[in-house]
Design goal:
This protein has 4 helices and 4 strands. It has 140 residues and is α+β, with helices and mostly antiparallel strands. The radius of gyration is 20 Å and the shape is elongated.
Length: 140
């Protein structure tokens, strides 16, 4: 089962990689130019995604459920989300691994980007983005 999950994770990572660089296209949408830029990035990658996933799983003591290759400026990193289950406690860790060296750059608790945002339900709480709360707060 774990092998299948790792395979799925790797396949997901490849799928993400295939579409991860839409902003690299020229203003005219030049696919050839984008392919050259992605090729140049991939030529710098020395660590296989499968190896990075394994390292992240060993570091966190869990199972990777997402792996993405990200390129920004001169940094190329794998961003790997690992789920850790200890008894009844489930947590998540986000681990960044340098795709050129294999060095673990960051290991921190996973913070969902949506965390703390309004869930769009009218709960009577006055929160930033739920205008309905303000309107219905005093309706009786």
């Amino acid at each position: 089962m774990r092998m299948k999950l790792a395979t799925v994770t790797i396949l997901l990572g490849v799928a993400v990689l295939a579409g991860a660089f839409p902003l690299l296209a020229d203003e005219d949408g030049g696919e050839h130019s984008r392919a050259k830029k992605v090729g140049a990035i991939l030529a710098q990658v020395k660590v296989k995604m499968a190896d990075a996933v394994k390292k992240a799983e060993e570091k966190a003591g869990g199972t990777a459920i997402r792996a993405e290759l990200e390129a920004e400026d001169d940094e190329i990193v794998y961003d790997i989300l690992v789920i850790v289950v200890k008894g009844e406690t489930v947590s998540a860790r986000e681990i960044e691994i340098d795709a050129k060296t294999g060095e673990i750059l960051d290991d921190e608790p996973y913070a969902d980007d949506d965390e703390g945002e309004d869930d769009d339900h009218d709960d009577g709480e006055d929160d930033d983005e739920d205008e309905d709360d303000d309107e219905h707060e005093h309706d009786d």
